[in-house]
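How a chain folds remains the central question behind the approach discussed here. The record that follows shows the chain in one-letter code together with its fold in token form:
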Amino acid sequence: MPPIVFHPAYEAELPADHRFPMGKYGRLAALLRERGLVPDGFVTPEPADAALLAGAHDPAYVAAVLALRVPPAIERAIGLPVTDSVVARSCASSGGTLCAARLALEHGLAGSTAGGSHHARRAGGGGFCVFNDVAVAALALRGAGRIRRALIVDLDVHQGDGTADCLAREPDLFTLSVHCERNYPTDKVPGDLDIGLPDGLGDADYLAVLEARLPPLIDGFSPDLIFYNAGVDPHAEDRLGRLNLTDGGLSARDRFVVGLARSRGIPLCAVIGGGYGKDVDAIAARHALVFEAMAEASP
């Protein structure tokens, strides 16, 4: 089984009436245990410290977050209260993605049960994202000489503006975002390749886009590592989605991406990205699909 990373801090404390479904992280971990996907237990990561986070973010912003002194405008943009619990979650999530990426380089496949905070830009957070875990991990691995090139395959329903911003000057860290065009954020930051989809797109048409665009991109770029943001908010029932994928469509998507990486011998690190609504069990079950896909693809 591919190693899976989890930290108890992934599930932060929020007000009971908050619209972010924080309970999905603990429920996802329980589901993965129930389904036998972590027979040896989860890998517990080391939370990211200020120096690691400053590799992708403005050091002044990192210091403000860690000191719980984020300007009100940025806290409003984040949409989460910047408390000790939320900051601990954000540091654990960034450390978790880096841990999972290192494990992917060693084992071929690995994932974290959090991550995909792709709206956090270099100088500030947004869209429920405080720190950009994938950008942090990609820059750290490249800086340590573990990789030369990485491909970020972002299939969350929202455009990966923050990742594009953090990696704008990094041609060897390529950002692909396949998203619903008429969705958040309104002020998109162009990435290396943005594919905006129309509202209401279903399984077959969505998969056709991936099948046409992703294989030639991977073959032409030849990354040393793929980061896969497997957001489940393209689902038809997602509260913030606007696309029309089913559970089966999400599963086929995940198997396709993981299968491409395996067929080309490229390590893949999966993070869970977005998934929104009141039915936490249903959302967690959708997030579990990418881990099932990796389990099926592992030797």
Observations:
- The beta strands are 4-5, 109-112, 150-154, 173-180, 193-197, 225-229, 268-271.
- The CA atoms of residues 121 and 165 lie 6 Å apart.
- The chain is about 40% helix and 10% strand.
- The longest helix spans residues 84-107.
